[in-house]
Each structure stands twice: as structure tokens, then as C-alpha cells.
Amino acid sequence: DTAVSQTPKYLVTQMGNDKSIKCEQNLGHDTMYWYKQDSKKFLKIMFSYNNKELIINETVPNRFSPKSPDKAHLNLHINSLELGDSAVYFCASRDGGAYEQYFGPGTRLTVT
Amino acid sequence: GQQLNQSPQSMFIQEGEDVSMNCTSSSIFNTWLWYKQDPGEGPVLLIALYKAGELTSNGRLTAQFGITRKDSFLNISASIPSDVGIYFCAGFTYNTNAGKSTFGDGTTLTVKP
Q1: How far apart are CA B2 and CA B5, in angstroms?
Q2: In Å, what is the CA distance from B99 to each residue of A49, A50, B103?
Q3: B10 to chain A, minimum CA–CA distance in Å?
Q4: Measured at the alpha carbon of residue B107, what is the angle toward residues B13 and A45, in degrees to the nearest 5?
Q5: How many whole angstroms separate alpha carbon B10 and alpha carbon A34?
Q6: DSSP category for residue A97
Q7: CA A39/CA A82 separation, integer angstroms
Q8: Residues in chain A whose Cβ is within 8 Å of chain B
Q9: Distance (Å) from the C-alpha of residue B99 to the closest C-alpha of chain A?
Q10: How many CB pairs under 8 A join A and B?
């Protein structure tokens, strides 16, 4: 069983489009994250949710809107996609009492 | 904001050689973590360090939590081809009721058979 899963694995779209990436974890964790990894491999936190509540929002453009329908899911919707949004987006989860984060396999977004 | 500087940025070594990489921060962290990212995958935790001065091993990997709490080191002994990947350090902090890891820039390791 996959612990943290993301769909889709690859996403190619044109500038100006709106797209969503979905994340699910079956670990029973109460905290979930979205990270962006750019072409230089820098891993930057975007958002964190704890029990469906937004906890961290790291100065991400408001074209990015996370949604957590329940503790096991954290989706990322992106409006008006730009070339600079091209990156690999990782979802991660963490149990509240632990430090380790479990990452999904990533979604490679390419905006043309 | 907090910044983690990781060095070296990349390493090209021969199989069997030992590897050292380090991470320095402008801020103090209470927990240091080392992750490895295989190509096409998400990062996976290798070692967690909880106390200043702590030295922890995981197989051929050894990591240390610096005394100043602003740095950490990772050593890999007798490297093998499957050690290839990107190694990230991360400092963990709690902010109100949220925990956050700040990641270093990564060290890309290439091992030549």
C-alpha cells in the first residue's frame, strides 16, 4: 500500500489554464504539506494543514489554493498557470508527535 | 527567514570512497534531519538527531548534531552505486501549533562504479 500518493504523476498544460493536484495519505497522520521543488532541486514549503486547518502559508501567490476535505487528503488547485510554476510538487504528511515527514512521489508540472 | 547552507553542492566519487557533507544554519534548530531523494522519487528520512553533540549511525551513514545547534554533518562510508541521489539536511522547528522543516539546498552525489 502506498503511504502518500499523488495524482497525476505528470501534468503538462498551457499558460493561463487552471489545474489541480491531489494528495492522499493512508498513514493516519494529522498534518500534511505541499512543497515545490524547482529545477535547481531546492525544496520549498508552500502550505501546511493540521486537522484540515491551514497552519502555514509561505508567501505563495494566491493563485495557489490548497484544500483539505479531510485529514487524509490535501489538494492543490492552481489558477492562471504561469511558466514559472513549472516544477515538481511534493505532498508530505507527518504524525503530530513526530518529526519525520513522509513524501509522495511528486507531480511534475510543465507549463508551456 | 531561516536559511540552511549545504555543502558541497555536488560530489563525484569512486565506489568505495567515503563521503562527507555538512549543513550550516543562521538559526538554532532543536532537531536536525537528513533525507535522501532518489531520482524520480520523494525524499526519504535517513537519520534524525535530537540533541546537540549527538552522533547517530544508520548502517554506513553517520550524522552529527553540532554543538552550536546551528550545524550538522553526514558521512557515508564505503560508498556504493545505490548511494546516488540528492541528500538534504533539514532543521525542524515548531511554529505555534505547526511543525515545519526547513530544507538545505541539497548535495547531489554521483558514485562511479
Answers
A1: 10
A2: 10, 9, 13
A3: 12
A4: 160
A5: 26
A6: T
A7: 15
A8: 4, 31, 40-45, 48, 50, 55-56, 90, 92, 94, 96, 99-101, 103-106
A9: 8
A10: 58
Question: Cβ of A101 and B45 within 8 Å?
Answer: yes
Residue of B nearest to A95 (CA): B99
pLDDT digits (tens, 9 = 90+) for A28-79: 999 999 999 998 889 999 999 988 888 888 888 999 999 999 999 999 999 9
Please give the Cα distance from B40 to B38 (Å, whole number).
6
Q: What is the pLDDT of residues B15-35, one digit of tens each?
A: 999 999 999 999 888 899 999
Mutate to test the interface with B, among A27, A35, A43 (most CBs of B within 10 A): A43
A46 vs A56, A64, B12, B26, B66, CA distance in Å? 8, 9, 31, 21, 28
How many other CB atoms are there within 10 angstroms of residue A47's CB atom? 21
**Percent of chain A scored above 70 by pLDDT?**
99
Q: Quick check: A52 and B102 in contact, CB under 8 A? A: no
Any residues with CB less than 8 A from the CB of B51 and at least 6 apart, and which? B65
Cα separation, A19 vs A82, in Å, equals 11
pLDDT tens-digit series, residues B67-111? 999 999 999 999 999 999 999 999 988 765 567 888 999 999 999
